[in-house]
Predict the structure.
Amino acid sequence: MNDAVVTSGRRRLYRTAVAAFAFAVAGGLAAAVGYATESTDELLGLGLAVALTGIGVGLVAWAKFLDLDEHVAQRRDRLATTPVEQDELDAEIDSTIELFGRRRLLLGLSAAAILSMVIGFVGPLGSLGPKPRGERRRTSWRAGARLVTADGAPIEASAQPFGELVTVFPDGAVGLDDSQVIVMKVPPAQLTARTAAGATADGWVAYSKICTHAGCSVGLLGVDTRPPETLTQLVCPCHQSVFDPLDGARPVGGPATRSLPQLGLDVDAAGFLIATGDFDRPVGPLAWDEA
Amino acid sequence: MRRRGVVARYVDSLQSRVGGGSFVGKVLHKVFPNHFSFLWGEVALYSFVVLVLTGIYLTLFFEGSQQPVVYDGSHEPLQGVEVSSAYESVLRLSFDVKGGLLIRQMHHWAALIFVGAVALHLARVYFTGAFRRPRELNWVIGYGLLLLALAAGLTGYSLPDDLLSGTGLRIIHAVILAIPFVGERLTYLLFGGEWPGTDIIGRLYPIHILVIPALIALLVGGHLALVWRQKHTQFPGPGRTEDNVVGERVWPSFAMKSIGLLFLVAGVVTALGALFHVNAVWLYGPYDTAAATSFSQPDWYIGFLEGSLRLFPPWELRVGRLMINNVVFSGVLIPGLIFGALAVVPWIERRLTGDDAEHHLLDRPRDAPGRTALGVASITFVAVLFLGGSQDVIAGTLNISIGRITALLQIAALVAPPVAYVVTRWACRELAGRAGPERTERAGVITRDAGGGYQGADADDDAPVEAAQR
């Protein structure tokens, strides 16, 4: 290449490429040093980033330095087949149809054989999971089961209102997903009649913690004490469904359409909260025939 | 005859055995047109390369199992906590494997960029009409790649078994469960029984590291082969016609720049992985089915699906014993409509315009007002859903009630797309009527050298000369 025609722009590109590759060398070495001496990944990562970016910039600058920003025109051949080729193809297809079409029985049977073979392989796919047998409609709650926290501690009915939600499980099934329940204590007068009917004890109410919309855990209790009335709401943090715990946890906002199933409560001889039985309907989101 | 170099001798040796010399020549001289918007596909491909390489490293440490173990690694807040093997292995990789956190974060950043580049590439192809005959098939392949990219992201996001990923899986479970007739059976097959079971992580793992990447590689191969066979589209310009391709030859300029881009993408991903925490699963904690956290957000590309679930009003349909659940509408039908329409874009356009001719020259978006307006309206709809996916964060930031933001976005989802359609179509027509920016081409300049001879060279970039406007 003749030096005289090397413009200042190209000289700059040359210098850029040289500098970029030099940085890349330094970056790779810095990464190696970083790995050997540092306890964190920062220097390692930055060194590698410099090495990779340096190579990238170097290559692009090199390509531009070679001054290959060219405009070459290439002919675009028609993709469609010529009439002659089309005729040959048609003839080939015709003869194939004739060749195989004569033996209808063989054709039909071979297709049936392949189909039945495929059906045969559906069985093993079914082994991926058992048939649903109504497990989803039952939980571990039984009449007399004590409500215990994740630590296994039972709830004293005489305890003062917590002012917050407590997550409980049936005694002996702590952590079991479908049995998670939220329990809270409110002045009994605040509860609507249908909420209180046989299902509360000393102002305690308990609901399934699984959101009826998409199954997240309804973990937020919002209390708004601003006049005119105190609002108490359960909120699901995933899709912002809102339930009213004073009125059977019916949905009052967000996408949920069904209330949270309520757990009937009672107090045992020792003064601890117990369940009066399982939920009266499936918990969480439902399949098409479970409503 | 002069002695041939070592490279040439190896080339000779290979050619004498497998032939193909003329093919290689054709490959090296293939012409590719240049435009910045053509780079998105390359960026997607190269982030996939980064994903595969970093992903292989991750598989050497990750345990795809929900077996409970007690964490005893060096991250103190979680010591003594019972977690799944999967979660434990991710913590070990992040805290006790030197370089592990870097590679893990590179993998996650590359995934975010991968889906983004695929989306931008798709937008480019749509708005310039590159999907028209004869490229409908490649549109469908690209569409398949978009679905696979989303599936790869979703399955990968679910693997660490942290609180956010577990919550995400739970929502997916609810959506599948709601599918009429087959939903419950499907969830049992996928999860190996009742939610949550002990199988799902172990099943998503091979799907994420084998099935989906293999399918992506296969479709990428087909995608590129078709680009090769049909040749790249180009924007109209001086000397460019339906019967040619004007641009750079593959070797060396296009190849050098493209390989340079590969390194640049990898460099940016590495810098992000080194400097910015992403998916800090140790902060979320292990998945606990009785816990959920507020302000939880999925990765960006799932945001519009999350928004659909959040914004859809509390409706469900009951016909006798049959119930069409709320999440059937918001989690199945709306995404189904979006992705269904996307799949058949070339045929919708053909039906609307009646144009079935071959097109190798691209439209500027303004030159096809209807198509551009439809695209902008669709993007607007998806963008409203995306905002809906973080409506709690927006409400918290603006200090407005969530209910009000939700109502506002519900209205916007219905009103904004038609408005965007009308405005875009008007803007396109306005712009199309105007003369565009003057097209500039680098003109050849003759330089006189020291010896008195003349030689051609390109002008400096600073001195463009106007060329004929098209």
